[in-house]
Amino acid sequence: MREGWPIKITDREITLRPLRYRDKARWDRVRAANAQWLAPWEATRPPIDPDQLLPTFFGMVRHLNREARQGRGLAFGIWIQVDGVDYLAGQITLGGIVMGAYRGAHIGYWIDQRFASKGYVTRAVRALTKFAFMDLKLHRIEINLRPENIASARVAQKSGYVFEGVRPRFLHIAGEWRDHLTYVAENPNL
Q: What residue ranges define each of the domains in the chain, with the CATH number in brackets?
């Protein structure tokens, strides 16, 4: 992506930083504790190649770092410091980065239920959007979300994203092709 990867983005007690191999135990605990909470919103693989396995945590970290170095995506753990303790509270990704005439990307995220509805995701989205607009000089960023995910729609709206439209059967989520609402932010400086 750029010299200096990995990078950190901070906003007071929130730090966005790439996952590292040593984060595996924390990531596993948070994901296991939130499996039911996240299931309705999680991407799933369509049954085209049922033998294809999901990557291990280490494979995922390698892939995400390779994507960042190639300029295709930036993935961060959302770390929140409370009373001097750092908690892995979720993950946020600026993915599908395309330069050239498009200069765009999309943001996706998930949050530990213990940290939901406290403004952390909104602040993480704002911080990552600011980085993408100021440092990467992107023109357009999308957030695509399920129509029934009211909390995620509030995050997009509070982060300055505006509703653009509906994408029928956009992503494979929870075992089916699901419609998504598209929210967009455009760089006011380009």
A: 9-141 (3.40.630.30)
